[in-house]
Amino acid sequence: MDDAVATATARDFAALLTAAAAAPERPLSGLPGPDTRTGVDTHTATGLGTGSGAGIGPATDASHATDPANATDTDPGHATDLGDATGTDPGHGTDLGHDAGSGPGAGDTEPDPEARQRPGGARHPAEVALRAHPQVADAVVVEPAEGPAVAYAVLRDSVGPARRELLALLRRSLPPEAVPATVTPLDALPRTATGALDHARLPGAPAPSAPQGPRAGAVTKAFTALLGVAASPDDDFFALGGHSLVAVRLAEQLRAELELPLTGLDVLQARTPRALTALLDKRAARQSAARAARRPVRSRSVRPGTVLVTGATGGVGAFVLRELAARGRPVLALARPESAHLITTEGVDVVEGDLTDLAGLREAVAGADAIVHAACTFTRHDVDVAATEAMADAWRRGPFVFVSSVDAYGHPEVDDVSEELPPHEPVSPYGRAKLECEARVLRAAGTEGRGGASAVRSPIVWGAHDRLREQLRWGAVGGLYQAARRGGPIELPRPGAAGHAWYGAAWVHAAALARAVAECLDRPVHGVANACSGHVSWRDLADDLTRLLGTRAEFRETDEVPRDLDHRWHYAGARLAGPLRPRPGEERRTVLAEMIAGMTHGDDGGDG
Q1: Are 110 and 98 in contact (CB under 8 A)?
Q2: Which end is more exposed in the chain, N or C (fewer Cβ atoms within 10 Å of the end residue's Cβ)?
Q3: Which of 16-20, 133-137, 225-229, 443-447 has the lowest mean pLDDT?
Q4: Confidence of residue 26 (pLDDT cuts 50, 70, 90)
Q5: What is the rounded distance in angstroms from the CA atom of residue 381 to the CA atom of residue 402?
Q6: 3-class secondary structure for 555-584?
Q7: How far apart are CA 284 and CA 232, in angstroms?
Q8: Sign of the CA dihedral with 32 first, then 34, 36, and 39 last
Q9: Which region holds residue 520: left if phi is over 0, alpha if psi is between -120 and 50, else beta?
Q10: What is the pLDDT of residue 295?
Q11: CA-based diameter of the chain, in Å?
């Protein structure tokens, strides 16, 4: 059989063993078979659900997030908060982003403690197969930096299968590259005091030395100070009591002390002091290399038509820079000092600053011939409004494009939202801040020599950028993503529930959004315009995610509408329909596949 058939056979066999172990009394005819259409087994799916008190992902209160001193670019990596939230917020208030849009709020969905950093964070296939064996109570696969993977299995009783039998099972059911070198039976997996797997106590596993150096010390100190316990190198952030707010504060403290780009999403992704130290070491090396090779800044006196772009190192900002550079527009990018080295696009000059430096913002705006304001703290709305007001006051010529969010519409009574529709309560604090910023820019347009203004309202933004990938995993639809990654029953609102025919999310490809922004520089819309590539139902998105992650899930439709999935609006986008028209490679499934594949093999290096 070919590899695809072999993989499917192994997966179905593992599901069969799981079902048999879970319900020994079930007759053979009641055990699951493969679903040849979707690969979803409707009998044995297990995992997160949204009923019976278990939600896809609790939304995080956006009012708790970050310090304005650290709020700068909309760069999810370099603003404040947790990541790149650039779009709508069906979750009604999650603190996971920084680019000028927003995102459906997912909140603190804890990842699987033993999940390896495989595509999408999935478990090692050998671990899945071992856990599916009815006589195996627990299992883990360790993949050392050098050498083959090794597996450990906890047997349910002393007369369980021998190691050679388990290894033979794996060889029969998995492709050769997925079979570990050994399987070692254990009475129990060694754990640290916090419940994390203690790799150093696994028999035959090399004991890694503790990280050394100033960054390692700073990380350990920050973990201990904010979590209230002395953290060892491999202690898990969640097991120590961490959550999104603590992750934000920890990132801010380390960012200020080490002068390196770091976000709360990075903390949630790394999870242990060892992994976070390694990430910071990598970013420090990249920062040093970039600064050593930095091109001299060209004189702006010979560059008429310069566009100032805030939020330039975020997921949206990076695509805007590329689009403007491709059009031959000279660009001045605003970036935090620790993140400025991330901007390497040819034709782009950099000015260091942040949204709290109002004098610096006014100076940058005064020297530009056009403005794209994509930066946002996401959570410190007073900082966002004050920064936008300062920029609008200093604006004296050319067009101004403000990257806003469909959150500004609030909760319309109608399901089809036109660009002229006024806001309808409830409007989130984030959406209200966007409305206020829009009003200040649009009010100033056309006065004292100023050009036209455009408020581009964005939903969720997807694209091949590390910060947008993090948002997919942890932000707007993070709860749905994590449930799909684990596999299991996922409860979704039934069409017609609560009187609404559809539930899902609006989305835009980052490249299409960048084209729309560039279009507004040439032809301002003189008002509000929506930027959507399409709309996807929760059912279709869950199906996309499980397929791309290679997991199995049962979708259960319910008349209850979970808070984080209570989004039913379609946003019209006639005013920017031309630049938003999808190009090859911008289809929904294509961009999701690129994002998930890049979670272990980032293709744009968006460290920050």
Answers
A1: no
A2: N
A3: 16-20
A4: very low
A5: 15
A6: EEEECCCCHHHCCCCEECCHHHHHHHCCCC
A7: 22
A8: positive
A9: alpha
A10: 54
A11: 86
Q: What is the pLDDT of residue 580?
A: 97
Residue 45: CA count within 13 A, CB half-sphere: 24
CA-CA distance, 125 to 170, in Å (whole number)?
9
Angstrom distance (rounded) from CA 155 to CA 188:
8
Residues in the chain: 608
Three-point CA angle 37, 43, 44, nearest 5°? 105
Q: Which of 470, 482, 513, 434 is nearest to 261 (CA)?
A: 470
What is the H or E stretch that residue 454 is in? strand 453-458
Per-residue pLDDT tens over the stretch 313-363: 888 999 999 999 999 999 999 888 777 777 777 778 888 888 989 999 999
C-alpha–C-alpha distance, residues 517 and 465, integer Å:
18
Among candidate residues 273, 326, 262, 256, the one with its CA nearest the CA of residue 466 = 262
Taking 3-state DSSP, the helix, strand and coil percentages for the chain, each rounded to the nearest 5, stand at 40, 15, 45
DSSP string, 69-81: GG--SS-TTTSSS
C-alpha span between 533 and 512 (Å, rounded): 7
CA distance 316 to 607: 14
Please give the average per-residue pLDDT across 379-405, as a whole number: 95
Contacts (Cβ under 8 Å, ≥6 apart) of 334: 72, 73, 308, 309, 310, 311, 312, 350, 351, 352, 353, 354, 361, 364, 375
CA distance 514 to 250: 32
Q: How far is CA 111 from the centre of its chain?
A: 13
Total-model pTM: 0.66
What are the helix (H) ranges across 35-162? 125-132
Residues 6+ away with beta carbon under 8 Å from 577: none
Per the DSSP assignment, residues forming a β-bridge with 608 are none
Q: What is the DSSP string of 151-202?
A: EEEEESSTTS--HHHHHHHHHHHS-GGGS-S-EEEESS--B-TTS-B-GGGS
Residue 299 DSSP class: P
* Order of strands across the sheet that contains 331-335: 348-352, 331-335, 307-310, 370-373, 400-405, 453-458, 527-530
Q: What is the Cα gyration radius of the chain? A: 25
Arithmetic mean of pLDDT, 466-478: 86
579 with 595: CB under 8 angstroms? no
Q: What is d(CA 488, CA 357) in angstroms, rounded to the nearest whole number?
A: 48
Would you say 337 and 259 are in contact if contact means Cβ atoms under 8 Å apart? yes
> Does 76 score more than 70 pLDDT?
no
Cα–Cα separations (whole angstroms), residue 447 to 393, 396, 398 = 11, 8, 11
- The pair of structure tokens assigned to 194 is 């916090």
Spatial distance between the Cα atoms of 236 and 283, rounded to a whole number of angstroms: 21
Q: The dihedral of CA 4, 9, 14, 19: what is its sign? A: positive
Which residue carries 């700068």 as its tokens?
72
DSSP alpha helix (H) spans, 327-416: 358-366, 381-394
Q: Which two tokens stand for residue 57?
A: 């992902």
